[in-house]
Design a protein that fits this description.
- This protein is of the alpha+beta class and 145 residues long.
- It has a single domain, classed as START domain (Alpha-D-Glucose-1,6-Bisphosphate, Chain A, domain 4, 2-Layer Sandwich).
- Helix content is 24%, strand content 53%.
- The chain contains 3 helices and 7 strands; from the N terminus they run E-H-H-E-E-E-E-E-E-H.
- Strands 1-7-6-5-4-3-2 form a 7-stranded antiparallel sheet.
- Strand 3 and strand 4 form a beta hairpin.
- The longest helix has 22 residues.
- The radius of gyration is 15 Å and the shape is globular.
- The N and C termini lie far apart (31 Å).
- The model has no long low-confidence stretch (mean pLDDT 94).
- This is Carbon monoxide dehydrogenase.
- InterPro entries: CO_DH_gsu, START-like_dom_sf.
- It comes from Candidatus Marsarchaeota G2 archaeon OSP_D.
């Protein structure tokens, strides 16, 4: 599955980059985050409460920053397991300053889901993913005012 979008922020691309490239800070916006362990500047382990339909429980995630081009690009790889399922997500982020002030963040996430959760209808998975994405960016918008 592929998800993508763009958001505008009143902050410059360098300010947005500074926030989203810091795993501790950006994790503040992960919905239902139960725990976080920062391993290095480019790696974090997290546990989130997740659920789709009647399947609910904890998901263990490993976040890795895979690409850094200060103030313009970031890449993340996320690997997770739990609920008899697995997920791999590759995220690319592009930042661009606007001539009117502020910046635009454009992102693409390629997602692979296997196991019990994958057996759910794609519509249910997409709907839940879109809900989580919306919550994440609403939080990010609040933090970057």
């Amino acid at each position: 599955m592929k998800f993508e979008g763009s958001y505008q922020f009143p902050k410059s691309s360098s300010e947005v980059y500074s926030y989203i490239s810091d795993l501790r800070r950006v994790s503040e916006c992960i919905p239902d985050l139960k725990s976080l362990e920062i391993k290095s500047e480019d790696e974090a382990l997290a546990t989130v409460r997740a659920g789709i339909g009647f399947i609910r429980g904890d998901f263990n995630l490993r976040f890795n920053v895979t690409q850094r081009s200060p103030h313009t690009n970031l890449g993340y790889a996320v690997h997770g397991s739990g609920l008899g399922s697995g997920v791999d997500i590759s995220i690319t982020v592009q930042l661009e300053d606007l001539s009117t002030g502020g910046s635009t963040l454009s992102w693409v996430a390629d997602t692979k889901v296997v196991g019990r959760v994958a057996s759910m209808a794609q519509g249910m998975i997409s709907s839940q993913a879109e809900k989580i994405i919306k919550q994440f960016f609403e939080c990010l918008s609040q933090r970057l005012r």
